[in-house]
Amino acid sequence: SIPPVAAAPPPPSVKQHDIPVSPHKAEQQQLRRAIRTAEKAFTNSVSPLRESLTKLNLKPDEGLGTVAELVRNASAHLQQHEGPVGLQLIRITDQADSLLLHSLNVAFIAMLIAKEAGWSPLEIEDAGLAGLLHDLGELKIPTQITHKRTELSKSEVNYLRMHPQYGYEQLNAIGAFSVKVRLAAYQHHER
Predict the structure, then answer these.
(1) Three-state SS for 11?
(2) Considering only CA atoms, which of 130, 126, 114 is closest in space to residue 78?
(3) 3-state class percentages of the chain: helix first, strand second, coil last, to nearest 5
(4) CA 156, 157, 158, 162: dihedral to nearest 10 degrees?
(5) Given CA atoms 16, 17, 18, 21 in this order, what sign does their dihedral have?
(6) How many other C-beta atoms lie within 10 A of the C-beta of residue 101?
(7) 117: left (phi over 0), alpha (psi -120 to 50) or beta
(8) Higher pLDDT, 123 or 44
(9) Could you report how far apart the first and last alpha carbons of the chain are, in Å?
(10) What Rg do the C-alpha atoms of the chain give, in angstroms?
(11) Alpha helices in 3-142 (DSSP H)
């Protein structure tokens, strides 16, 4: 008969911080954390931005502070981070919030480009504001036109093409944004 084999002693307890992590893996983990943090900030900005854009349309003075603060915070986060996190935040827009998410995407891309171009922090904020507010005039276009799923009539297309003018007029009436931001709203469809 074969004698029973004694059970092997349990392995010594290994703590997670005792395991060496390769520099590449550590870099990947850091990037994943940065992306999660940035995604959380992006998601958390959607609801206040929706409210702010509505206020800008109905009660301009009430929406200004929130819009400027959101862009200022995004710009500050962007300037603190080095690396490819930015493009991870670009979202595919859905029909319900297409204008809102498009505006956030444009604002973020504008700030990324401004940062890479070596612009000052204030210029980066202006680029973000210009991106965020460039389609503000679309809020004056009836949703029957902006959300229409069939082909637009000539008069509807002409009405929609007026949104840069409407946005420019609205931003001029508010008077709180730089000339560059207002001109971006007016000229963003120039050819």
Answers:
(1) coil
(2) 114
(3) 70, 0, 30
(4) 100
(5) positive
(6) 19
(7) alpha
(8) 123
(9) 92
(10) 24
(11) 23-58, 60-80, 98-116, 121-133
Say if residues 127 and 80 touch (Cβ distance below 8 Å): no
Residue 132: exposure state from Cβ atoms within 10 A (0-12, 13-18, ≥19): buried
Tokens of 36: 């999660």
Q: Which residue has the tokens 């092997």?
A: 8
- Residue 70 pLDDT level (bands cut at 50, 70, 90): confident
The residue type at 148 = K
In the block, residue with structure tokens 């990037």: 31
Distance CA 57, CA 125 (A): 21
Alpha-carbon distance of 189 to 191, in angstroms, equals 6
- Which residue type occupies 14? V
Q: What does residue 117 show for φ and ψ, rounded to 5 degrees?
A: -80, -5
- Six-digit token string for 84: 């490819």
pLDDT tens for residues 166-188?
A: 999 988 988 878 999 999 989 99
The separation between CA 77 and the C-alpha centre of its own chain, rounded to angstroms, equals 12
**Cβ neighbour number for residue 92 with a 10 Å cutoff:** 7
Return the number of other C-beta atoms located less than 10 Å from residue 162's C-beta: 14
> Whole-angstrom Cα distance, residue 46 to residue 173?
25
